[in-house]
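Hi R.,

Here's the chain you asked about this morning:
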Amino acid sequence: MICRELKEAWVMIEQHQHGLIAGKFANAFNSKLFLESKRKDEAIYAIYEHDRGWIDLDDTPFLNTSEGTPYTFMDFPIAVKLAFYSKGLEEVQAESPYAALLCSLHFERLLIQADIEHPAFTKYMEQERLRRDHIQKQLGITDPASEEELIFHSWVLQFCDDLSLYLCLNEPGSDKEHEHPWWRDGFTISENFDFTSGGMIQANWVDRNKVKLTPFPFESSLSIELGYRYVSKSDIQKLGLSDAYMQSEEIRHRFEITAS
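And here is the predicted structure, written out as tokens:
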């Protein structure tokens, strides 16, 4: 679950819904900037489905009782989270081994950044190394050209994931001072794209419904609809998080992503 705290409520967004938005960004990526690739469709599928392991977990959100806040993707108990990462990867692999390879690499990077120490982490990392080795041999991804394609697709996944999270974790219309700190200076991974010439793609809120990207990575402006629940803190106290969440209204917010 992705959660953003307000004074009297939590904005709560299902992780897989965020993933589907990342997939829409990947699908809209300017074809002239997308590395020529025989596996482009599989890469886009991976980006759409990379967080599907969260579907069951987000069905019934629950409270971190020690903090008094909803569990989020950042503090969810690691052993359970990794078990559902594995479940999601199995489901993706059944449709596209290449997509599972890409998602597995993405999770490895995120988990290493999190600096986790837990027996379940060690077991998961070894399990995923074996999965990736098997898939790379199965698909013949053993030469520099095919590995270059995989690396490029991993950059696109990370960028689209970050841009979707940017919409989820920021209060719409925020100025730079009040933006989530992860992207105030730009999207770091975008330095790797040829069209940025070593710089970073910058995002700025024009208003509550419009985000400007510079340089612009998509074919044209696009409209994105984000669904979330506004869950009152008083309802959480009265009903418990799960019931308060289920009884809250789903809200749809439409954003325009543009070059100007």
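One quick note: The chain has a mean pLDDT of 96.

Cheers,
M.
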